[in-house]
Design a protein that fits this description.
By secondary structure, the chain is mainly α. Helices cover 84% and strands 0% of the residues. The protein has one domain. The chain is built from 8 helices and no strands. Helix 7 packs antiparallel against helix 8. The longest helix has 36 residues. The N terminus is likely disordered.
């Protein structure tokens, strides 16, 4: 019985120490998350200005969105926190998607329009997963959860649309995705800053 009590602290202490060290370092980078959020909002404003964008333009814009999301997730995966493999996994998937988009933007557009509902579903699920991962450090984690639920609902609605309608939805989606990423990033940045003040 006593050996069990002795073994438990030895197992938990390194994990707690690792979490505390990460929590101390994280608030110093709040401004990076803020800058990324502002950049996402600026990208959204540019994307939503297009009335009739060309197929190639939309393919490149979607590739840039995938690239930004991939870099952001890979950067977050470098922090020494539990379940960071999820950040790395989704970051790698976003980066691969960016490369495919840049290699052939025309086919990317057609392919994305065909499977737009599936892509919405993937993004919505990731936003919900990320909301729960951030629950301990972000008091507004529920905003990410609501965004994920809305994106998942949009996924099922989009699956029933025709190709031409999907083409326009894809452009609007790119702008809304960037806008939601930006707002979530700004909220997250101030949440991280508040955590630093509490520490």
């Amino acid at each position: 019985m006593s050996s069990e009590h002795a073994a438990t602290p030895q197992f938990e202490v390194p994990l707690i120490g690792s979490l505390r060290e990460s929590a101390r370092r994280l608030p110093g980078y709040w401004w990076v998350v803020l800058a990324a959020g502002i950049a996402w909002v600026a990208a959204a404003l540019v994307i939503l200005q297009f009335d009739q964008a060309s197929v190639t333009t939309v393919g490149i814009l979607v590739g840039m969105l995938f690239l930004g999301a991939g870099v952001e997730n890979i950067a977050l995966a470098r922090l020494d926190v539990p379940v960071r493999w999820a950040w790395a996994l989704f970051g790698a998937l976003f980066l691969v998607s960016a490369v495919v988009s840049f290699v052939n933007p025309t086919d990317t557009f057609a392919g994305l329009a065909d499977m737009l509902g599936f892509l919405f579903l993937i993004v919505g699920v990731w936003w919900m997963v990320r909301a729960f991962l951030e629950r301990a450090i972000n008091p507004l984690w529920w905003t990410g959860l609501i965004s994920g639920i809305l994106m998942t609902t949009l996924a099922f609605w989009t699956s029933g649309q025709f190709f031409i309608q999907k083409a326009y939805v894809l452009l609007v989606f790119a702008g809304i995705w960037a806008l939601m990423q930006g707002i979530a990033g700004i909220v997250r940045a101030f949440g991280i800053r508040a955590l630093g003040d509490q520490l």
